[in-house]
Specification:
The protein has a three-stranded antiparallel beta sheet with strand order 1-3-2. A hairpin with a 2-residue loop joins strand 2 and strand 3. It has a single domain, classed as Orthogonal Bundle (Arc Repressor Mutant, subunit A), CATH 1.10.10.10. By secondary structure, it is mainly alpha-helical. The chain is built from six helices and three strands, in the order H-H-E-H-H-E-E-H-H. It is globular and about 40 Å long. The chain is 49% helix and 10% strand.
């Protein structure tokens, strides 16, 4: 890993929401949909997407588009710099991360054949004008 890549990782980790997102990936071991993260974190879809973009640009996540859904997964390549960081993130256990993980587990229970099929379920998190989700189009 280069110095620049390492700097980008540390910059990406310098935000509470991005740490919370990464914690969910580390703990769940799952690929996660933007909708699932939105509901679990109680953060708007716009903000979740923005944070996912930063984490992906730093090389921490990869993305796959499947129809209208976008799934992200943790890049788990053995690395002397990254592995201790991921172990530390795995050990986070404050009230926020415990709640996030409980919310994610409830949200993952709604999957069909291991995939999200229902969109954002928490109505107050749906951005005005966001079409194609449960609460309709503008």
């Amino acid at each position: 890993m280069t110095v620049k890549q390492t700097v980008n990782i540390f910059k990406a980790l310098g935000d509470e929401t991005r740490l919370r997102i990464l914690h969910l990936f580390v703990k769940s071991g799952e690929e996660l949909c933007v909708c699932e993260l939105t509901d679990a974190l109680e953060v708007t879809q716009y903000n979740v997407s923005r944070h996912l973009k930063v984490l992906a640009a730093a090389g921490l996540l990869s993305r796959e588009k499947a129809g209208r859904w976008v799934y992200f997964k943790l890049n788990r390549t053995p690395d002397a710099v990254l592995e201790p960081i991921l172990r530390a993130i795995d050990r986070l256990a404050d009230a926020t991360t415990v709640r996030d993980l409980a919310e994610l587990r409830q949200r993952l229970a709604l999957r069909t054949d291991g995939r999200c099929t229902i969109g954002i379920q928490k109505r107050h998190l749906v951005t005005k004008g966001q079409g194609g989700h449960r609460w309709g189009k503008p």
